[in-house]
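Section 5: illustrative case.
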């Protein structure tokens, strides 16, 4: 099969990039001919004139449309699969595919079609004010980069394509990672039949630990919506379980200061790690903590943990209630005090912990391997073709 895959990189690397790269590598490994169309938001220069010029193309980039039509005619793909298209590529590429008669599938890695910051998150808690549009609350509350102007521009782009029925009439299929995400898009107005649920996958980890160390692990962006404040509040109450924190972000300095002031000697900030070192740290962890206070789409780190036989403690919110099975692959908590209690509980009973660890590995083998993902993805493609 000939597959054209499109992706627009954000200025800050994220999970979408990793999903895009791993999926492309997987398709190639199964013998498919893959052509890439990649754009980057770094194409938007920081000077004011470039930003104003780009603002005029947010709804529709003629250059992206022309490039896509040219690529379609030369490569002649059976199908086109887009990941992110914001903000350089724009939905104009979908119309290029439609005009060339090539079916289009789009992976939705966040909630940006319904929420201009993509998170359903405002003022420290979940917010669905713009779910069924238009995005006026998002503009009023400056939900994109804290700017009313930028928020208005982002809202205009998504609202314009809702009005034009781009999502319903031009895209043939959408892919989301969970039933929870699908339910939100159905609420917003996309037909249920157009949305396919396909969980993320990871390759078999390069490192397996024969026994676990006694530390908990957080791995991800250090930002408010990821629940790092909740995480540290919980560890104020925990003195006997070490916590390793991997990653960086806007809350890093504040977290370092908090750890120092509170004297949290059992909390270590490890920063960014190379892939091999990160895999080793994860494989040896007693459990992973996912304290996000926003709706997650599907944190890839959860699948990485399952592949290593590492149970997950997750905030009882949104998709996490779906992908972390209570008492089977981990535990769910509500608030810092409950997190502290569950952290103690998960390490207390060794036999119960051993079963949790075995269950996570079984969940990986059943649902999250590259083979399983490939079978489901190709099924979606073939159904469309």
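Designed sequence:
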């Amino acid at each position: 099969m000939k597959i054209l895959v499109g992706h627009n990189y954000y200025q800050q690397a994220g999970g979408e990039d990793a999903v895009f790269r791993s999926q492309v590598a997987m398709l190639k490994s199964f013998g498919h001919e893959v052509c890439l169309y990649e754009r980057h938001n770094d194409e938007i220069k920081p000077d004011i004139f470039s930003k104003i010029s780009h603002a005029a193309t947010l709804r529709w980039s003629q250059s992206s449309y022309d490039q896509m039509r040219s690529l379609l005619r030369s490569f002649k793909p059976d199908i086109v699969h887009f990941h992110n298209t914001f903000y350089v590529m724009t939905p104009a590429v979908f119309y290029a595919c439609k005009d060339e008669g090539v079916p289009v599938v789009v992976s939705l890695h966040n909630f940006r079609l319904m929420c201009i910051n993509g998170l359903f998150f405002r003022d420290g808690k979940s917010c669905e004010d713009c779910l069924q549009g238009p995005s006026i609350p998002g503009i009023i509350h400056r939900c994109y980069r804290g700017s009313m102007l930028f928020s208005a521009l982002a809202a205009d782009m998504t609202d314009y394509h809702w009005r034009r029925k781009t999502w319903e009439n031009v895209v043939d299929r959408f892919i989301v990672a969970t039933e929870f995400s699908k339910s939100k898009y159905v609420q917003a107005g996309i037909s249920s039949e157009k949305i396919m649920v396909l969980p993320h996958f990871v390759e078999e980890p390069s490192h397996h630990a024969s026994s676990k160390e006694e530390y908990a692990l957080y791995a991800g962006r250090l930002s408010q919506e990821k629940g790092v404040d909740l995480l540290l509040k919980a560890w104020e109450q925990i003195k006997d379980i070490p916590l390793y924190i991997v990653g960086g972000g806007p809350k890093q300095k504040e977290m370092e200061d908090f750890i120092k002031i509170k004297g949290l000697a059992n909390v270590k900030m490890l920063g960014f790690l190379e892939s091999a070192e990160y895999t080793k740290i994860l494989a040896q962890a007693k459990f992973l903590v996912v304290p996000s206070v926003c709706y997650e789409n599907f944190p890839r780190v959860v699948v990485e943990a399952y592949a290593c036989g590492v149970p997950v403690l997750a905030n009882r919110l949104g998709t996490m209630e779906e992908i972390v099975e209570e008492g089977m692959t981990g535990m769910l908590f509500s608030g810092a005090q409950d997190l502290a209690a569950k952290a103690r509980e998960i390490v207390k009973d060794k036999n119960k912990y051993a079963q949790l660890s075995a269950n996570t590995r079984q969940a990986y083998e059943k649902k999250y391997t590259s083979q399983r993902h490939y079978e489901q993805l190709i099924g979606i493609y073939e159904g469309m073709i």
